[in-house]
Design brief:
Blueprint: E1 34-39, H1 43-53, E2 58-63, H2 66-75, E3 80-84, H3 92-100, E4 107-112, H4 117-125, E5 130-133, H5 138-173
Parallel strand pairs: 1-2, 1-3, 3-4, 4-5
Length: about 170
């Protein structure tokens, strides 16, 4: 797996744009701070997510539109993106489509005031991680974000192991 020149905001402390990332942890050392990107035009969403996850090792980076998110994701690797279903400049399906084309693609959690079974099924069937209903339930937000990050991390680990195994098999075949 090729490494990216992007900053790894998924594991770097700091809460402001432009802040230099901290040294990356040793592979055996657990990540201390995990960053999640929240995309919503609503300040209340950002405040609630910070309130729910702020006492943990989660850090919320906030943007108000998909355009801002694209710029941010072009500079930082994110494990999880939490996105309002209806943004001023995109719908969640467009966001999911663009995220899936990114290297080391983040998992997408969609949020909606009108979360119902049909939207939940659509999010899951198209490859989103989950749907969070608003107003947010703190326990559910923490559970879903934690499991989404574990899913992203496990996928990266499987790809790393497969890459090492493939390299080893190629080396021994020569």
């Amino acid at each position: 797996m090729a490494t990216s020149p992007k900053k790894d905001a998924g594991a770097s402390p700091g809460s402001h744009r432009g802040e230099a990332p901290a040294a990356q942890p040793d592979a055996a050392e657990p990540e201390r701070i995990v960053t999640v990107l929240a995309v919503s035009p609503l300040e209340d969403d950002h405040l609630l997510l910070r309130g729910i996850l702020g006492h943990t090792n989660w850090q919320i980076r906030s943007v108000r539109s998909w355009g801002e998110a694209r710029v941010f994701l072009g500079e930082h690797r994110m494990p999880v993106v939490i996105c309002e279903a209806h943004l001023p400049d995109a719908q969640w399906g467009q966001v999911l489509s663009e995220l899936s084309g990114m290297p080391d693609a983040p998992v997408l959690i969609v949020t909606s005031q009108v979360a119902d079974d049909a939207l939940w099924a659509e999010v899951l069937s198209l490859g989103g991680y989950d749907l969070l209903m608003k107003p947010f339930d703190a326990t559910e937000v923490f559970r879903v974000v934690s499991l989404a990050w574990l899913s992203w991390r496990n996928k990266r680990e499987r790809e790393r192991v497969q890459g090492v195994t493939a390299t080893h098999l190629t080396a021994t075949a020569v």
